[in-house]
Amino acid sequence: MMKRIIIYLISLIVLSSLTSCAPAVKNPSSEGYAEAQARLYPEREYKIQLGDQLDIKFYYNPELNEQVIVRPDGRISLQLVHEIIASGLTPAELTTLLAKKYATELEKPEITVIIRSFSAQRVYIDGEVNRPGLVNLTGYMTVLQAISQAGGLKETARIHEAIVIRRKVDNTPYVMTVDLEKAIDGSNTSQDIALMPLDIVYLPKSPIANLNQWVDQYIRKMLPIPFYFGANISP
Q1: Which of 47, 185, 206, 219 sees the fewest Cβ atoms within 10 Å?
Q2: pLDDT (tens digit, 9 = 90+) per residue, 28-59?
Q3: CATH among 3.30.70.1170, 3.40.710.10, 3.10.560.10, 3.40.190.10 for 25-43+120-204
């Protein structure tokens, strides 16, 4: 009985110390997130990638309209100008390039490039979700929508401190902490931010989940006596 009391007291001390030492992360206001989104999205103008499907439309020469797929070598094949390197260009850059190429063939080459489908749009979901891994980003997708595609949250997830890591133009990481608890209960839906290609969403473990893991690794497996959560001190 005395051994059980001692172990119970140890567990209370461990729980108290872990709770007091847990880092307090202050979530930015909704205005802060709006500013961050507005600042980051324009910096990441989309560049055409391998496998993307493009619509090439001619205003005054519709007979030249084509729907093409960017080949593994990064090129597309078009009438009159043959092969053009499209991979790595923005739609606006490709439009300008095509206008120059067709200027020798057409009197007034008014051209528009439309990305019909994206091939390599994906985000990474890791941590306390049921199916961590890649999630295809087929259109507008928020953090909660991506987590749903990854099988949903585990009970051990720290949903008020989900982490989103995004690469800026200079390839430096931009880290955001989002409070999904507020997004789920509707008190602040702006916390469920829209994702961008190659974002990383990480769901850390809750403090109690970390405690259970610590207890399992460092107490249950090391002490030669049974360990119980809860007090049973009756004689």
Answers
A1: 185
A2: 443 344 444 445 454 457 788 888 889 999 99
A3: 3.10.560.10
